Amino acid sequence: VLQYLESKGANVKSEKAKDGYTCLMAACEGGALSTVQYLVEEKGCEVSERDEDGWTPALYACSNGHLDVLQYLESRGVDVKSEKANSGYTCLMAACKGGSLSTVQYLVEEKGCEVSERDEDGWTPALYACSNGHLDVLQYL
């Protein structure tokens, strides 16, 4: 579908919503690994691009627990431990809010993300896990 849209004039590298949300961010949020790879490798989309709130493709991948997409972004140079939105919201916070235990475990155990880190509103990963009722994530933390 994406390639068809391109054949009709869509420019997937430069398409953005008013808030800066890009095709790559959408693909990461949706967990479409092959589309993410296509956008990065064939179209030259930047893995470090940010929307107006400072959200990156990695944050979008974490928000829905797409660990395979996150690991691909890492292979392209993303440092998940230092990725933060403008508010200080981290990949770990996004994974906790989204309820992906496997992504949370990966970020803590393999990447050394801090479970006590706070965003600008004082929220921690545990608070984000609680806000959406993710007991398994909370118990892990």
From TrEMBL:
For this protein, the record's SUPFAM superfamilies field holds: Ankyrin repeat (SSF48403)
Question: Spans of the ANK repeats?
Answer: 53-85, 121-141
Q: Which UniProt keywords apply?
A: ANK repeat
User: Has the keyword Lipid biosynthesis been applied to this entry?
Assistant: no
Spell out where the chain crosses the membrane: none
UniProt keyword NAD present: no
Matching InterPro entries: Ankyrin_rpt, Ankyrin_rpt-contain_sf
Instruction: Tell me which domain of life the UniProt entry assigns to the organism this sequence originates from.
Output: Eukaryota
- Protein name listed in UniProt: Ankyrin repeat protein
Origin species:
Palpitomonas bilix
